[in-house]
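Example record

Each entry pairs one chain with its bound ligand, LAOBWLLU.
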Amino acid sequence: MESKAVINTTSPTEKGVLQTAELYNYVMETSVYPREHQCLKELRAITSTHPRAVMGTSPDVGQFMALLLKTINAKKTIEIGVLTGYSLLLTALTIPDDGEITAIDVNRSWYEIGLPTIDKAGVKHKINFIESEALPVLDQLLKDPENKGSFDFAFVDADKKNYANYHGRVLELLKPGGIAVYDNTFWAGTVAMDEGLVPESKLPSRKALIEFNKYIAGDARVEISQIPLGDGITVCRRN
Ligand SMILES: C[S@@+](CC[C@H](N)C(=O)[O-])C[C@H]1O[C@@H](n2cnc3c(N)ncnc32)[C@H](O)[C@@H]1O
Ligand SMILES: O=c1cc(-c2ccc(O)cc2)oc2c(O)c(O)ccc12
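Structure tokens for the complex follow.
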């Protein structure tokens, strides 16, 4: 059995938005952990000792991403924000053998922590990892007309202040009908809290996410749904 999630419903800093910790643990133990690939479990265990482990994608978000990827038969995907590669491995395990993932992160050394597990899972050949700030890479991709409208799926999980900047570029890369998923759009519940109650360290990303959530809600180019999984995800379908 996996270790229990601790959700203190009075704390804005814990992940998970269900009514109780018991319900969250029930969902994880009933529906998520039993179906999680062994290599994803291994990667989570490895990442748990990383100083930035808190940033790792939640397995319940991963499971939902896999459902979306399968539903749209995604083959060509892009990921912004890799850390040790949980969402990357999840994507690589889900898309077909000739699928391709462009994965961007400013820090290659964190990706390399997960690479042996990705290799063991037999899916490394699907990944093109680019160590860089994401914005210039997206701009470079968009210079090639063949890339425009060619991606099936995007996962955005990097610096929150750039989500709106990523969105315009990601939409140009996605096919009509393509899906983009933005992680952390609840930002530990702080997007709906009085500013005075929010820990100072969370304020800059909170401001960016509040603006992003408003912006995307008014964007007629996409259908959206903000979903209470993990730290909140926003799923967009390019019209
Ligand atoms: C939340 S973590 C990603 C978690 C990952 N999706 C997972 O499955 O565990 C955010 C990552 O974004 C990267 N990052 C932050 N700012 C970035 C930027 N401007 N361009 C590219 N990567 C960035 C960080 O190095 C970090 O690894
Ligand atoms: O605590 C965090 C911090 C980040 C984060 C902050 C600033 C950046 O430039 C990139 C990432 O991201 C997180 C995240 O994605 C998550 O799921 C939980 C916590 C954090």
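The first strand starts at residue 76 and ends at 80.
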